[in-house]
Amino acid sequence: MSTAGQVIRCKAAVAWEAGKPLSVEEIEVAPPQKNEVRVKIHFTSLCHTDVYFWEAKGQNPLFPRILGHEAGGVVESVGEGVTDVEPGDHVLPIFTGECKECPHCLSEASNMCDLLRINTERGGMLHDGQTRFSKDGKPIYHFLGTSTFSEYTVVHVGQVAKINPEAPLDKVCVLSCGMSTGFGATVNVAKPKKGGSVAVFGLGAVGLAAAEGARVCEASRIIGIDLNPNRFEEAKKFGCTEFVNPKDHNKAVQEVISEMTGGGVDCSIECTGSTQAMVSAFECVHDGWGVAVLVGVPSRDDSFKTHPIHFLNERTLRGTFFGNYKPLSDIPGVVEKYMKRELELDKFITHSVPFLDINKAFEYMLRGEGLRCMIRMDA
């Protein structure tokens, strides 16, 4: 029996207030409006960004809210004007989008869509500013336009990447955020040459995805930098060949790396959000050709200082957003890399819990255990 055009009652994990455990309860999900798609979520995982906004530190709190933005699902119904996807299509909802019409979307160099780029403040849909979620007639806010901690969600059509239906959703869903961000920072932006050297600052999920990118590019030295030595053994699975803990040295980590590599690495990828790490990542690349790529998101009021001579000595500093991938155009091809076994994803998924135990995923992340916890919506 078709549910198109009808309100769907389903379970969702609602964040009612900052830092309090999510509450799994029945909500109503309205039908999709113009340029919107309603998706049945099969698997979702927890990213640190969800935790950051759940804690509501350093930004305007917006509650009640349904968090979640790393997921895989199947289109249930589509709204007016939607032609790119249809019911039954397998999709990845993505926290940023691609309208295909703005200057950024028309540029080969950019993936920062004017209409659909990440907006953490917006709690409703673009079409009318209203939410599609409610409980007892009261609205529940959206998150990043995705809100995947719900059995059904409504997403702008420019934020759903249609993928190969043969791809296992419980694996490729991690490509909708962290894995693509780190992997793309290396392969699309830093672009290490075969046999080159790469430094990765921060060995969480995004940093390990950056290391995986360096491995795929066949870098010969992949140096992992982290303050937590417990991460070093795990990082070997992602291609890291050497490790540096800044706390083990009485000199700046960029000096340590420069000495290790005879003048600096060919490229570095910073995945911590620490401005100190950003400076180190830039200053540890080799003069003449070194490229440093910033991935980590700093606090709102942060700034950093480095001497202009580093630029004059022909080092390059770049930033990237979502690994420079255009969500609709590029992510289906990254899924194909996984299907062809050119990219490994299984090792990123270290835990799995049923939807009713979603708060366990938060506990794992807050304790720094594992990389990604898969949340099974049908369990």
Description of the molecule:
- Helices cover 23% and strands 23% of the residues.
- Strands 3, 4, 5, 8, 9, 16 and 17 form a 7-stranded mixed beta sheet that branches. The chain has a 6-stranded parallel beta sheet with strand order 12-11-10-13-14-15, sandwiched between helices. Strands 1-2-6-7 form a 4-stranded antiparallel beta sheet, with no helix packed on it.
- The two termini are 22 Å apart.
- Strand 1 (8-14) and strand 2 (23-29) form a beta hairpin.
- The model has no long low-confidence stretch (mean pLDDT 96).
- With 379 residues, the chain is an alpha/beta fold.
Key phrases:
single chain, 379 residues, Quinone Oxidoreductase, Chain A, domain 1, Rossmann fold, 2 domains, seven-stranded mixed sheet, six-stranded parallel sheet, 17 strands, 23% strand
Q: Assign the CATH topology of the largest domain.
A: Quinone Oxidoreductase, Chain A, domain 1
What are the low-pLDDT stretches, counting only 5+ consecutive residues below 50? Answer: none
Helix content: 10-25%
**Count of DSSP-assigned helices:** 11
Query: CATH superfamily assignment of the largest domain?
Result: Medium-chain alcohol dehydrogenases, catalytic domain
What is the typical, i.e. mean, pLDDT? 96
Largest sheet properties = 7 strands, mixed
Strand content: 15-25%
Q: What structural class do you assign from the helix and strand content?
A: alpha/beta
Could you give the distance between the termini? 22 Å
Radius of gyration: 21 Å
CATH class of the largest domain: Alpha Beta
Tally of extended strands?
17
Choose one word for the global shape. globular
Q: How many domains comprise the coordinates?
A: 2
Identify the CATH architecture of the largest domain: Alpha-Beta Complex
Order of helices and strands: EEEHEEHEEEEHHEHEHEHEHEHEHEHE
GO molecular function: alcohol dehydrogenase (NAD+) activity; S-(hydroxymethyl)glutathione dehydrogenase [NAD(P)+] activity; zinc ion binding
Protein name: alcohol dehydrogenase
Family: Belongs to the zinc-containing alcohol dehydrogenase family. Class-III subfamily.
Cofactor: Zn(2+)
